[in-house]
Amino acid sequence: MLHLDSHPTGNHFLQIPGPSPVPDRLLRAMSLPTIDHRGPEFGRLGRRVIEGMQRIFGTRQPVVIYPASGTGAWEAALCNTLSPGDKVLMYETGHFASLWHRMATRLGLDAELIAAPHADELLPQAGHWRHGVDAGFIEARLREDTQGRIRAVCVVHNETSTGVTSDIAAVRAAIDAARHPALLIVDTISGLACADYRHDEWGVDVSVSGSQKGLMLPPGISFNALSPKALEAARSARLPRAYWDWEEIVAMNATGYWPSTPNTNLLYALAESIDMLEAEGLPQVFARHQRWAAGVRAAVAAWGLPTQCADAHRHSPVLTGVITPAGIDADQLRRIIHERFDLSLGTGLGKLKGRMFRMGHLGNSNDLTLIAMIAGVEMGLTIQGVPQAASGVAAAMAMFRDSAPAAPMTAA
Ligand SMILES: *Cc1c(COP(=O)(O)O)cnc(C)c1O
Q1: Domain boundaries, the chain
Q2: Fewest beta carbons within 10 Å, which of 100, 121, 317, 370?
Q3: Against a cut of 0.85, is the pTM above it?
Q4: Mean pLDDT for the stretch of residues 277-293
Q5: Per residue in 57-95, pLDDT tens?
Q6: Alpha-carbon span 104 to 90, nearest angstrom
Q7: What residues flank ligand 1, with Cβ below 6 Å?
Q8: Nearest CA to ligand 1 atom 5
Q9: What is the third-level CATH fold of 10-20+280-402?
């Protein structure tokens, strides 16, 4: 029996912004026997999860499910729609956008990483990592491209490295205003099932997501939601692809099967997750995350620490990035909090290493687990000698006490 000796009693506080804590109900679903992935029972499961994920993405078009982490679905989105040397416009919202850009370059695309400049006193080297996508900046760049060389615009919906969400409808409107034919490809790996998302309504051509964030599953499966225009682009796209190729998968998915072996037990959990999300109602799920995020921000404001997000309207409902005072190593703070209180927080990624930490507030949580997370951080700050203007715990308690939950959780 595997024994995790760092967590002797109680529950580990997994407060990183993905993987998020897995509900017991999903773990139980996963423990059912693995079945024949070519048998009749499997076809029903396959259809059920694909149709469920269409509703979660807000689409009537195909959703492809891969036994891979989100990174695999990033690659699938690019190699199914683009050809070697194609120009793509990517927007640098943070570390994940930068990693996706590196991948595009490695795949042989002519990938341009843009961001509107933002002077910033607190983080002079990463001012633009405190803001969401500036759709006007994308529109201007597309208008310059009078020959239509840019084949795709790629943006991250919820930038998990910073806690900043971007307005995808505004990016669609910018592409339309420029009358540009580029595909719109969106990473909503951590946004989906936490923040409002509408694949069809927002005119997204490929939406990329993963299992271990808002869907509350363990890591291991990921998604591409498609559009008719994306499927059309796939017919002439020449980047090499085999395993990731949509055509065969979409064809077989019509009857609920896959060309290769799908991740059977994770699909059980996915069916269960879709049931849980829909029993609560997606609007309630989104409101619940907004409310939690407001409670965590109330705590951060009480401490007197700045959030990584500098746009009042773009705070992520999924996680909050907190900038530590100069001279305080955020990773040292995280280590102390982990050792003393069995609480995991997200590290500062890329340019933000040591300068900030991330508090996840997504998925299988509740008001009290979040107050416990805030208490762990508050104790860690005190141990590290970080002065606090007021108690974050008290501020979050007041916020949760005085604001009614968006809707009662439906009994499981
Ligand atoms: C988690 C995440 C990824 C990477 O996904 P993996 O499952 O780790 O491969 C990419 N983009 C965003 C926005 C993420 O949150």
Answers
A1: 10-20+280-402, 25-263
A2: 121
A3: yes
A4: 98
A5: 999 999 999 999 999 999 999 999 999 999 999 999 999
A6: 9
A7: 18, 69-71, 96, 156, 160, 187, 189-190, 210, 219
A8: 70
A9: Aspartate Aminotransferase, domain 1 (3.90.1150)
